[in-house]
Design a protein that fits this description.
about 200 residues; alpha/beta; fumarase; 5-stranded mixed β-barrel; two-stranded antiparallel ribbon; about 30% strand; globular
Length: about 200
């Protein structure tokens, strides 16, 4: 299934845990600094330079080059999403993001914010930076470049960016929680076998 901006709450709520999807169309790239600046501006009553509502946010610190034709993506691998754990619940609430692309999962408060506001987490394989760059067809623009290339807010166009796994759905379910439960169950079984 291909997901395209803008995403509706109903669309993301229909996605199933473990489902494989890809993303086409407009994607916003931003990580720590973008989250902090956006939330700061919101608290100051200032508008953002882009409308993130119903959008797709990619946790990524891209490597870009620029020539006479504009910006080109060299590498765009996912950033470890746990870096944004403290900021993401408020970010989802304030800006109405519908999907987040990243790696490694996110905290329970973020999962609960996704459930409350209608958002999913799409896991992308780490180490796929060049593959991801090949799926980005155009850099539409950049905001807040003063934060540095990897921390700026990039607006890109993607064509079948993925494959992505629905690793946290919009109903509070998480593949990462399921793995943790399985690991704990296996540890308990091992302790019983060993008489510990």
């Amino acid at each position: 299934m291909i997901l395209e901006y803008p995403l509706s709450k109903n669309k993301v709520q229909a996605l199933q845990l473990g489902q494989i999807v890809s993303v086409s169309g407009t994607v916003f790239i931003g990580r720590d600094e973008v989250h902090m600046r956006a939330l700061e501006r919101r608290h100051q009553g200032k508008l953002l330079p882009v409308d993130l509502e119903d959008g797709i946010l990619y946790h990524c610190g891209p490597i870009m080059t620029r020539d006479s034709r504009g910006w080109k993506v060299i590498a765009a691998g996912p950033t470890t999403s746990a870096r944004m754990n403290k900021l993401e619940p408020d970010f989802i609430k304030e800006f109405g993001i519908r999907a987040i692309i990243g790696k490694g999962g996110m905290s329970r408060p973020t999962v609960e914010a996704m459930k409350e506001h209608g958002c999913v987490y799409l896991a992308f394989t780490g180490g796929a930076a060049v593959l991801a760059a090949q799926k980005i067809t155009r850099v539409r623009g950049v905001e807040w470049l003063d934060l540095g290339m990897p921390e700026a807010l990039w607006i890109i166009e993607a064509d079948s960016l993925g494959p992505l796994t629905v690793a946290i759905d919009a109903h509070g379910n998480s593949l990462y929680d399921n793995v943790e439960k399985e690991v704990q169950g296996n540890l308990e079984a091992a302790r019983l076998r060993l008489g510990l």
